[in-house]
Amino acid sequence: MWGLFSNPSSGSGRGVVLRNQVIEILNEKEFAYHDYSGNNTITAQQNLQSINDQDLEGLIVIGGDGTINMAVQSLAKSNLPLAVIPAGTGNDFARTLGLNIEDPISNLEIFFSTPASRIDLGIAGDRYFVQILSTGFDSLVNERANALPLVKGRMKYNVSILLELLKFQPKNYRFRVDGVSFESKAMLIAVANGTSYGGGMLISPKSDPQDGILDVMIVGPVSKLEFVKVFPKVYRGRHIDHPAVKFLSGKSIEIDSEAIAYADGERIGPLPVKVEILEAALKVWRR
Asked: What pTM value is reported for the model?
């Protein structure tokens, strides 16, 4: 039996279309399935918590990164594989896994015919994340984007960048990475398990969710004009050579400042935050 978990509002209704297609294929193949989606967030979380990983071949999750993040809170450290059908506006986790975003349904053949593998997870407090935990400028952009319900898709993020940049100032951060402490002023900090966020922004293009470490990118202070010039390079991962950009890595990262953190686009809350790597904590299908 397969599990099914979907967000019908993902991708402006794309989730509904893909869910119907997945169900049609499951029926054609005469595969039994159980739908854990629920009618609201609370019910969906309760349904996920009730899953017994010995009862299912895998959990097919249809939605964007937020939906995946919700499912991962229950799948972490279990033997139940996650099968991602990307249906959101960003689909960054699917990018990291090498899945087909343009033709999401084609990924079903991978789930049905190949074994799943294990990848690492990040954990901040009691929240797991698959991709990026961030603080600084982009977290403020997330806050503002959440307050713009009438603007949709990537445009919401672009508008929020412009509005937030008008008043943004770099902050002083205190770090502790694998026991080594230091301070640095920064505009943006990303703790990466995966490669991208924000709908294909390759913030940490060399990150590998199977290498047992977290990569930390720190963008030091630059002028707003320089920031505007450098920021578009993130979509191709070409920002990494800029002199204000520094990378380091570790298994345990502590960050403190007067700032907030987001992980996988979900609000973690005010700093300080301690982030750790959990090796091989999630079973998942990938190319």
From this structure: 0.90
pLDDT digits 0-9 by tens, 40-97: 778 888 888 888 777 799 999 999 898 999 999 999 999 999 999 999 888 999 999 9
Residue 124 lies in a domain: no
Report the DSSP pairing between strands 273-284 and 214-219: unpaired
- Asked if residue 40 and residue 151 are part of one domain, the reply reads no
* Spatial separation of the C-alpha atoms in residues 170 and 287, rounded to whole Å: 39
What are the φ and ψ backbone dihedral angles of 263, each rounded to 5 degrees? -135, 125
220 with 184: CB under 8 angstroms? yes
Closest CA to 217 of 253, 271, 268: 253
Residue that finishes a domain, picked among 68, 93, 115: 115
Does any domain span residue 123?
A: no
CA 119, 54, 3 angle in degrees (round to 5)? 75
Q: Is 65 left (phi over 0), alpha (psi -120 to 50) or beta?
A: alpha
- Asked if omega into 272 is within 30° of 0 (cis), the reply is yes
The DSSP line for 8-72 is TTGGGGHHHHHHHHHHHHHHHTT--EEE---SSHHHHHHHHHT--TTS-S-EEEEE-HHHHHHHH
203-217 residue pLDDT tens: 999 999 999 999 999
Find tokens 């937020």 and name the residue: 66
